Amino acid sequence: MRTSYQLRRLKPILAQIKQEASKLQSLSEQALREKTSLLKRAFNQGQSLDNLLPQAFALAREVIFRQRALYLYDVQLLGAIVLHQGNIAEMKTGEGKTLTAVLPLYLHALTGKRTFLITPNAYLAQRDAAEVAPIFDFLGITLGVAVWEGEKAPDAQKKRAIYQADVVYTTSSQLGFDYLMDNLADRQANKFFPSLDYAIIDEADTVLLDMVQTPLIISGAPRVQSNLYQMADQFVSTLDDRGIYYHAGKKEVWLTEIGIKEAERFFNIEHLYAPAYFDLVRHLMLALKAHYLYLKQKDYLVKNEEIKLIDQQTGRLLTGTKLQGGLHQALEVKEQLPPSPELRTVATITYQNLFLLFEQLAGMTGTGKTAEGEFLEVYQMAVVSIPTHRPVQRRDLPDRIYPSLTEKIGAVLSLVQACHKKGQPVLLVTGSLTMSQLYSNLLLSQGLAHTLLNAKSGAREAEIIAGAGAYGAITIATQMAGRGTDIILEAGVRELGGLAVIATERFANERIDLQIRGRAGRQGDPGFSQFFVSLEDDLLEEYGNKRQLKKWRQSGGNKRYRSLYRLVKEAQAKSDKLGQLQRANALAFDKSIKFQRDLVYHQRDALLREDQLQLDLEQLVEQALHRLFQSENLSEQVVERYILDHVSYRFQSLPSHLDLQDKMALKAYTQQLIRDKIEQKQRYLGQDFAVFLRLASLKALDEAWIEEVDYLQQLRLVLSGVSASQTNPLFDYHQQAHQAYLKMQERVQDYLLTYLCLSEVEKTSNGRLIIYFG
């Protein structure tokens, strides 16, 4: 078995750690504190981290024991070795991942490079950092917490100080947004982001798989509001025949050939996908998604005349969060609300490409083995299953399958009542906020007191989940709520059978099911897990074999359990496969923008460094004017308009002596106007002209890049609507993205020329430059 082979390879390293540990037990605290300096010196003198691992791990283990009176188990040491080697340690709930991570974090911090622990949410980052802070302090390792959720973000100087700590605890979203913000800095002094050297990702499957469908986006100025939202919504509202006018999957929807013809008839146009109708197609795709992919009460609520999104991981309402790219506005129009301003995308990155920036990546999770192929393919990380310290006592019972949702709900309530009657705590796990509320209402009607997990903060959520092991407790939660928090059984509960985990449905993939099962059975505790399924569940409605389901219904329910169970597992496998394909598709589409983003960010960094700017102004003017004067539609009005827009607001008209038919003369005249404007600024600014030139170049690059990012976001949405055609949307996207990038480079030159000529520049008495960009 591969896992056994992987663990056998680690056993000699484990023996070395334990051998080193025996040497440390008699040392004084002062002697232990001095060890970090010795290890750093050994690394700087050429020792590898692999060679230093036994000493470093043994030292960290001894410090943890003295600080916390906890001596790490062998299985935790094995997990720590896996993390150091850049793989994913699959460790079950309650096995002590928080302290396990301290060892590889400490080892990598010895290098002086940046070392991170990345969690899915702010609560976990702050909680875990507070727990390990005394340990790192004893070891002489500085600890930073890069989390400012719900509070004002610190300035660049304070962020830089936090990120320069030896070890940084943060969240995946905070890290991503800070990366994007750092690459919007207008000067070197405002740069704060560190190098991305080594990171451990906690709840790795959540962060690296479940969260990656939604890219990180920073929004800027609003677009001009369009009435196309209403027109597109009116059209989509007429499409009542699924499969004829449109196809809708779990995450994508597109018009069929008949639907395209209907759109052309509705809008009285000849060819829907002609370039002139780019914006119309974008709004049609938004309206289709709003109507057929986003369900009221499941994906969002309408509250106080606003669209409130529902977190599909936890079931909580997402306050202050909006869908991007115009989708939120499409939902508002669908619900007959006035559309809010649509903001342009200023910067974006997917989680996949964010984490691929790290020199070395590792992860830990309770459920990763089933997705090992994807982890290997995308992140080059194997999943190593670490055995539990104590044997698992939890009983995983066979699914109970029912023909209808009503029958299933009745059976779920009966089991909850039976457990509660004897005082056995119950964790009732649902697939949505709506179903959580339904079960809550039903329990209330039966007089059963319970806790409904609908907390608005991670801390409160963790508190509720932590109390789920109390005598007689009934806790209702969605599938991902409170992840990362152990459920500890109250005294006497073990004798009652431990925690009962009752899941009201099978979920989108086997990993989620395993996460739910893992709520019970912590550190050898007793307990059981029971899944309930109906043939009317969303999973089977969306992914089930329609022919087999029809046969079963026609048979009057006379089917063997094994065939029904296989039907459920096949639907789940189909759902999981689709999720994998969507993540792969997102990564494939993002290749173009990643390539462009890397080039632009490299250009920005060069502009921010004073010794890097090399710009041939004559060539800049020549290239910009070449594009103008090679136009076949060149006229006196076109040239005058160009001069007004790019060179001088005070320009009135071309001189009468110029031969307007002589393009070379017109070009020479325009060139001289530009030279005069630039030379005027050079004389006024003197040595400060280089500063002005750098800032103008940066402004031009940023403006063109913002337009490019925003266009690529829209382009992807538009091309998602041509899946029914014979073209390859991915190929078309990369081809058009390349052309767009070439045009962006031209826009950079045009913007720079405009800023050089039209900007107003002032020098204050203390020599500070004030620039008003034209």
Automatic annotation (TrEMBL):
ATP binds at residues 76, 94-98, 486. It is found in: Cell membrane; Cytoplasm; Membrane. The keyword Zinc does not apply. NCBIfam families: PRK09200.1, secA2. PANTHER family: CHLOROPLAST PROTEIN-TRANSPORTING ATPASE, SECA INNER MEMBRANE COMPONENT OF SEC PROTEIN SECRETION SYSTEM. Monomer and homodimer. Part of the essential Sec protein translocation apparatus which comprises SecA, SecYEG and auxiliary proteins SecDF. Other proteins may also be involved. This is Protein translocase subunit SecA. It comes from Streptococcus cuniculipharyngis.
